Amino acid sequence: MVFQPTRGNLPARFGPGVPNVPPIGPATLDAEVYRDPERYEQERIKVLNRSWQIICRSEQIADPGDHHVWEGHGESIVITRRPDGGLDGFHNVCPHRGARIVAESGTDARRFTCKWHNWTFTTAGKVSGVPDRPDFDRKRLEGLCSPAVDVDEWGGWVWAVLAGPGVAGPLKDWIAAEVRDDLAAFRMEEMKLVEKVEWVVDVNWKVAIDAFSEYYHAQALHNMGGKEAKDARHSTIHVHGRNGMYFVPFLGVLEDLQRTLDHTRYAICNYQLFPTAVANCQALHTQVFRAVPLGVTKTRFEAWELRYELEEGDDPEYLRQVDFFWEIYKAVVQEDVDEWTDVAATTQSSAYHTNILSERECVITHFHRVVDDMLAGGDGLGLEPKPVDEETVES
Ligand code: FES
Ligand SMILES: [Fe+2]
């Protein structure tokens, strides 16, 4: 049987006692967060490099010597699969004169050679060979390595922290437990990559993350029907730790959802994985959207489509269904991406000062508060609103 996610012991996301929105309320957001070059530089150092980010699928570097070169926000890194099954990761920057060591992803590497002057490196990034070594200061070369990145795997994804081991704590604690456990019900680690689609867009990376952190735009931009829009009013939104998540009933199953309370089966489950990814899970298949910042107003936007494996005897109709819905989904994502050309056209406008956010856009509000906190030197935690009754008790 093709795997079918179920709610199991997860908390109910719908039904009695589950509010539609957390008590964050409407808010405003300064447009400078999308266009200030100095702020972008600070985000690179204090947010992007100090966070766990998705790099690639584990299956892309399955065997010893397989390696993945990843580039974004001015950084270049290499992740390699070790013979013991673990991963090594290091900055793809030659300590001789700064060239990129490895040009592209590949398989079966035993060592890497920087082609400018043929310095060689172990697959963990340690300098192992220097032509004409006696010509150099011996002390400068002793134990020389390219700086390590922290690397780990979860959900079938390879993740990395570019500022190095220990900076962001363990990966398992990076995503809030409530969000991580909910997302885990979809078993992304058992899924296979169907397709990855990329766009380069002239907007700040946060525009893309914002766009996938609310459902408000679906009615207008994606021409959602009246009944669907009415059911979508029953969606629920939650923030925990640095993350947000929301659940939107599928069309025509509101009664089933209210009866079973199984959101993994009857709702679109959307998980924001701070800072640069959003997982959009449905019982049938999952999309992961990943924003890779390239400049203050330039972003590589990636959509990854994942499906479950067929076992022997399973009905291949599942594959046809996945293909059918993924084609529809791609067209919907194209509408989102196209919309950003309108955002790009006015980013620098003298008339653009503020975003006005509704209470149902509160995952965006929370996300920007986490970014602000990390820019100020914090860890982005503890910013969720307290439940209303706790506040009442205190005051
Ligand atoms: S820059 Fe790499 S060997 Fe010289
Ligand atoms: Fe959309």
Automatic annotation (TrEMBL):
Which keywords does UniProt give here? 2Fe-2S, Dioxygenase, Iron, Iron-sulfur, Metal-binding, Oxidoreductase
The record's section on Pfam families has: Rieske, Ring_hydroxyl_A
The record ties this protein, via InterPro entries, to: Rieske_2Fe-2S, Rieske_2Fe-2S_sf, Ring_hydroxy_dOase_asu_C_dom, Rng_hydr_dOase-A
Known EC number(s)? 1.14.13.-
Q: What class of enzyme is it?
A: oxidoreductase
Keyword Phosphoprotein, does the record have it? no
- List required co-factors: Fe cation
Keyword Transport listed: no
Record domain Rieske: where: 52-160
Check the record and name the Gene3D superfamilies matching this protein. Answer: Naphthalene 1,2-dioxygenase Alpha Subunit, Chain A, domain 1, Rieske [2Fe-2S] iron-sulphur domain
Record GO terms (molecular function): dioxygenase activity
Q: What is this protein called?
A: Aromatic ring-hydroxylating dioxygenase subunit alpha
Lineage, uppermost ranks: Bacteria, Bacillati, Actinomycetota, Actinomycetes, Kitasatosporales
